[in-house]
Amino acid sequence: MNVIVTAIRSYHIFALMVNFITYFSVGADNWLVANPRDMDGFVQDAQSSRPTVFMGVNTLYAGLVAHPKITEVDFSKLRLSGAAVPPSSQPFPPNWQEVTGQIIREGLRSVGNHPVLTFNPMYLTEFSGTTGLPLPSTDISLLDDEGREVAIGHPGEICARDRR
Fold first, then answer.
1. Of the four, 56, 76, 98, 116, which is 20 to 30 A from 141 by CA?
2. Full pLDDT tens readout for the chain, 164 residues
3. CA torsion angle 104 19 22 140 (round to 10)
4. Where are the domains of the chain?
5. What is the DSSP string of 47-59?
6. Which stretches of 77-117 are DSSP H helices?
7. How buried is 11 (Cβ within 10 angstroms: 0-12 exposed, 13-18 middle, 19+ buried)?
8. Is the full-model pTM beyond 0.70?
């Protein structure tokens, strides 16, 4: 049985599309965390939920790894930890992998119309600090001020197109 932890705002397009619709369509249980700022309650509930998928934000991951009882949570069934982040996001805590055995996979989310544009592939074994590869039917380009593509690693405006 898959158990996805939804500790992100459920009115956001990412939580709606990824956590609810996608995981409900495959029959997963969805554990909705009403108040993720209550770290004591969160960790206590996590001890019995045994999540297989965990989607969160950097501040949530940081708060959890700093909690004194996080090592009491059984993460043996966890297969995916991830987050869809804006391009200017703060870094994730590096010790999440030490606590859970899983790296945090990042994706790039858009502000309004698309839940996630890119995501780190499952074959990664170390946290990359990048937003991954474009999802199917999604074209991504990075453009300079004149609208020309720039090389990977150079600054530019992220432009996305859905081919569906």
1. 56
2. 888 888 877 667 777 777 777 788 888 888 888 888 899 998 988 888 889 999 888 888 889 999 999 999 999 999 999 887 765 556 677 789 999 999 888 888 766 566 778 888 889 888 777 778 888 888 888 899 999 999 887 888 888 887 77
3. -50
4. 3-134
5. HHH--SEEE--HH
6. 96-100
7. exposed
8. yes
